[in-house]
Amino acid sequence: MIDLKNKIEELKNLIKESGIEAGDEISMLEDKIKSQSKTESVWRQVELARHPDRPYAMDYITRIFDNFIELHGDRSYGDDPAIIGGVAFLNSRPVTIIANQKGRSLKENVWRNHGMANPEGYRKALRLAKQAEKFNRPVITFIDTAGAYPGLGAEERGIGEAIARNLRDFSQLQTPIICFIIGEGGSGGALGLCVGDKVYMLENAIYSVISPEGCASILLRDATKAKDAAAMLRITSNDLLEFKVINGIIPEPKDGAHTDPDGTAKVIKDILVKDLDDICGRTPEVLVRYRNQKIRKIGHWNETSDSE
Question: Secondary structure of the chain in the HEC alphabet?
Fold first, then answer.
């Protein structure tokens, strides 16, 4: 890419010396380079979000919280290891933690279904959130999933209903909720844990309605155009902050959070302590009102006509 830019600069100088009119062609080449550069930059973030060494939820939980006790089961069907949850302490403050959890090894990934939850996972999450509301504990969620599991059993047990119920009930939960998108935030599977008073993304995390590969296959009719689809989807943390879907971006080291998980965890902990000190002082009614106002503003923007 750098060599190509240098060649264009040489061509510009040659055109200037020769007096040839080729400004439009040069501009087209420069626009193409900018587009390719942006596409490659977005795809690098996708690769970092999916990096096999990237810290998962438990990596942050063990670094940020004390005395984490995992709780299991949805009290209806069973336990889903793709979503973990339990209680812990943050600087002596009791909190409830709910998170997507992927596996490190092949065996663990099969067990955790690559972090793609079934209905019982979302029902377990809601059970723990309701428990937190009862005992006035803040809820902290970590999102890292390509999406909810789309298998036959999940459909039979009501995956769509389970996610929809979470969206409704989390929006009305009378206790603080803070969400962190730490890797992939895919479709409704991510939304089921991502309704909160504050939502943050790690710098190289992604958040979208569909995966780049899915978008390329369905909309572009070409699975090889995943990189182009990623750029079109506007899935990066900077895009989501611009759209006001998230409240802030958590910086990562140059080569990704996996190069300094301790440092990244410290930044998350500092944000948590600061935000909880603020929003835990608000009444439940105020929390719910502002949370719903925030949700309703997502997707609203103003367009100006050319005549204005």
Answer: CHHHHHHHHHHHHHHHHHCCCCHHHHHHHHHHHHHHHHHHHHHHHHHHHCCCCCCCHHHHHHHHCEEEEECCCCCCCCCCCCEEEEEEEECCEEEEEEEECCCCCHHHHHHCHHHCCCHHHHHHHHHHHHHHHHCCCCEEEEEEECCCCCCHHHHHCCHHHHHHHHHHHHHHCCCCEEEEEEEEEEHHHHHCCCCCCEEEEECCCEEECCCHHHHHHHCCCCHHHHHHHHHHHCCEHHHHHHCCCCCEEECCCCCCHHHCHHHHHHHHHHHHHHHHHHHCCCCHHHHHHHHHHHHHHCCCCCCCCCCC
